[in-house]
Design brief:
The protein has a 6-stranded mixed beta sheet, with helices on both faces. Strands 5-1-2-10-9 form a 5-stranded mixed beta sheet. A 5-stranded antiparallel beta sheet has the order 3-4-8-7-6, with helices on one face. The chain contains 9 helices and 16 strands. It folds into 2 domains: 133 residues, Immunoglobulin-like (Sandwich); 229 residues, Zn-dependent exopeptidases (Aminopeptidase, 3-Layer(aba) Sandwich), CATH 3.40.630.40. It is of the alpha/beta class and 390 residues long. The radius of gyration is 23 Å and the shape is elongated. The structure holds zinc ion (ZN). Zinc ion (ZN) binds next to loops.
Length: 390
């Protein structure tokens, strides 16, 4: 630190200590949370407005008695004194998270790391927040070491180890999801479908954990925190689609992949609640991740479920458009480290689809087919991804 910047820092510290009022037009840090997973720790910083930033890594500097750390500058953000003492983490990967006012108009987050391999940064909205996942090898006990477990750092070698299914009814609470014909709300369709699916899965011998049992708001990172904490083996997110053109109808199933096609991008923008620019940023992040290891499993699961839905729904519900199993950049699928799919069970904006989605018997049939697809995945279908994205 130069003499000049030291003087500025002292002045700034003194100014804050004296209670100098904050500059106008700044936004706030609303909350800081963290979760510890077997291979990574997630830090979420909730802000009162969206910002652009990047994570920087600093190697340890013994001469200056500085340990290894990551930092991010938050332009236009005011922290004041609220987080001065830092937030201890101490989970073997991170020591602590510290926040401070770096300049009068820029806050700084410092993450003191104990073990560091790599990190990723995601920007989520509603509310605006930064998600920083820090990956590393935890030395202390607590890591699960089940052979073939994807979270053991190896590939899942055998889908037959699938025991626990995480059922994730999309949206809820303040977030209705898509609203369609006659005011049909996506969040109601997904909750209803989830209850039917959970019963079928339990009857088929799966353990089931759900991310919401009633009409409440659940953030994307909370959904994946539930999945990781429950040691889920696969993640199934339930949604209903919407399109500006009312004639568009059908069922499709997505699996995570950094690549995509144009239609997937539109669905992902709606489901992620982000703009095109933010989605581009997400894809740059995804390109750096090792999702390729889990992707073939997600793809196979998506194909099996989509095949069931496209071919085995009773004919009394009429012709159902098979939109296929596709790649898509969905946050909720990337945020967890397990095979994951997202099912769009029909368009609430299409008259025929909406009528079916209101019908309990139809939803029961959809639940049966999803459960059968999961059973086929667990019981080891021999083909890997017969259906390519189309
Ligand atoms: Zn949705």
């Amino acid at each position: 630190m130069t003499r000049r910047s030291l003087v500025l820092l002292l002045l700034l510290t003194a100014a804050i200590a004296m209670g100098v009022s904050r500059p106008r037009g700044l936004a706030d840090v609303l909350d800081v949370r963290h979760w510890s997973y077997p291979d990574y720790t997630r830090v979420v910083i909730e802000l009162s407005k969206p910002i652009e930033t990047q994570v920087r890594h600093l190697a340890p500097n013994p001469a200056a008695k500085k340990s290894e750390r990551l930092y991010l500058d938050l332009p236009g953000i005011w922290v004041g004194r609220d987080y001065k003492s830092g937030i201890p983490v101490g989970d073997g990967l991170l020591r602590s998270v510290r926040l401070g006012q770096n300049t009068l108009r820029t806050a700084r987050v410092v993450i003191d790391v104990e073990q560091y391999d790599r990190h990723r940064l995601l920007f989520l909205t509603h509310p605006d927040r930064l998600v920083i996942d820090v990956y590393g090898r935890r030395e202390a006990a607590g890591r699960r070491a089940v052979p073939g477990d994807p979270r053991d750092g190896r590939l899942p070698t055998d889908a037959r180890s699938v025991r626990t299914v995480i059922v994730d009814p999309g949206h809820g609470g303040a977030d209705p999801g898509a609203i369609g014909v006659g005011g049909l709300r996506e969040k109601d369709v997904t909750l209803r479908l989830s209850k039917l699916l959970i019963a079928k899965l339990r009857a088929a011998g799966f353990e089931v954990v759900t991310t919401r049992e009633n009409d409440r708001s659940v953030s994307l990172e909370e959904r994946t925190a539930i999945a990781e904490a429950s040691e889920g083996d696969v993640f199934v997110s339930l949604h209903a689609n919407a399109a500006p053109r009312r004639t568009v109808q059908g069922i499709e199933t997505f699996y995570p992949d950094a690549n995509h096609e144009r239609h997937s991008l539109r669905v992902a923008m709606r489901e992620n609640g982000v703009s095109r620019d933010q989605l581009d940023e997400l894809q740059r992040t995804l390109a750096k991740l090792r999702i390729g290891e889990i992707s073939p499993y997600s793809q196979r699961l998506a194909s099996l479920v989509q095949d069931q839905l496209a071919q085995a729904l009773p004919s009394r519900y009429g012709k159902i458009q098979d939109l296929g199993a596709k790649k898509g950049p969905f946050y909720v699928l990337f945020l967890s480290d397990m095979p994951a799919i997202l099912i769009e069970a029909g368009f609430v904006t299409n008259k025929s689809d909406a009528k079916r989605l209101r019908n309990g018997d139809f939803l029961d049939s959809v639940a049966t087919q999803i459960s059968t697809g999961l059973e086929r995945y667990r019981d080891g279908g021999s083909t890997l991804a017969r259906r390519n994205s189309k």
